[in-house]
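seq as requested:
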Amino acid sequence: MRTKITLALACACSLTVALVGAAALRAEPSPEPTTPEPTPEPTTTAAAKPKARPNWRKIQRRIKYYRRETWYWQRIMGRRVTWELRKAPRRPNAKIAAWRRVARKTRLTAQNPPHKQAWLCIHRYEGSWKDGGAPYYGGLQMDLGFQQRYGLPLLRRKGTADRWTPLEQMWVAERAHRAGLGFYPWPNTARSCGLL
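struct tokens:
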């Protein structure tokens, strides 16, 4: 009988374990189908940000600055004024760079008048670049008639030659030279410099 009770108890234990295990399996929820999580929106980086609109006033100011410088030196040299660039670039920064190059080239040309050494030699014998003693003015001692004929825009804008820069005075003298006067308006000093 003891064996029967032990056997019955063993069966009861195994049945209890089986029932508990089955109950545990039932209580555990079945895994639900997973839905893909939404991907986050990409954050905007510096490259993805919209480009800033160009400041047209600032661009136009830069272009005007270089154009005025170009035109100023072209007028001083007595050359044709470049109103617009040939084959002007469309991009604003490229247009600014193009006018900057033209202004730099014009300024460099203006720094070296064709007879610069001759004018400097004449100046050495004539007077100070700021000599304002009438009737002759400036470092090349130009009288009012000479200034009116060959440097009228400067005379109107700045006054007599003693208020002009040395380069402006040399270019006015260069205009007289080109007009056929040569170095004859300065007979003594030109002779001392070996120009006549």
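Residues 56-110 form one domain.
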